[in-house]
Design brief:
single chain; alpha/beta; two-stranded antiparallel sheet; globular
Length: 194
């Protein structure tokens, strides 16, 4: 599992990774989801902007924290670093799930559904489906690691989802449409979503 948490939260004006929701920061929630998912053996968290403000709240977790000095390049640099770090820790890894810390409704059940769909569909990319799009969290078979390592700038997982449509299966995740980019998004998080 790779949790991308290197962005500067420029639209929010404060590190979204540290926003509190239901007693935990958004990043702590994402980490809890990863480490309690039976299917994820190793979790890499990629930090960048505001690392000094974020790291203390997660340093006691059962994860690998890596710092991306090139976070300003865009999300691609964090994906490359996350894949590289996973391969260093677990050279024989067969797949990786990429998730963000700003989707508060990602839970262990969704992670299980992604891995189960991979096992049952024989597809190499398993993406979450919401609001008429396919996106993160997304599982990539290791055969896609070379392509992930070639991403540049603001290119993310969606580039591969669009490039290899015949090798993509989807898992419905309607609440994936809710992510925290602005202070209004965060305020709305307090209102019911069901």
């Amino acid at each position: 599992m790779i949790i991308l948490a290197a962005g500067s939260s420029s639209r929010l004006g404060t590190p979204k990774q540290n926003l509190i929701y239901q007693g935990q920061t958004l990043l702590q929630r994402a980490i809890h989801t990863a480490v309690t998912s039976a299917c994820c053996e190793k979790t890499v968290v990629v930090l960048g902007a505001n690392e000094g403000m974020i790291r203390p709240s997660i340093s006691d977790e059962l994860i690998y924290i890596t710092y991306n000095p090139f976070w300003q390049e865009g999300i691609a640099s964090s994906i490359r670093l996350g894949i590289t770090e996973l391969l260093r820790i677990e050279p024989g890894i067969t797949a990786a799930i990429i998730m963000l810390c700003d989707q508060p409704f990602v839970d262990p059940l969704l992670i299980h559904q992604l891995t189960e769909k991979k096992a049952n569909s024989n597809k190499g990319i398993i993406a979450s489906a919401y609001r008429n799009t396919l996106g993160v969290p997304v599982l990539f078979d290791a055969s896609y690691f070379p392509q992930l390592l070639m991403l540049q700038g603001k290119e993310g997982a969606k580039k591969l989802i669009k490039t290899f449509p015949n090798d993509v299966a989807a898992v419905a995740f309607p609440l994936g449409a809710i992510d925290i980019d602005t202070i209004d998004d965060y305020r709305e998080l307090g209102s019911p979503h069901f």
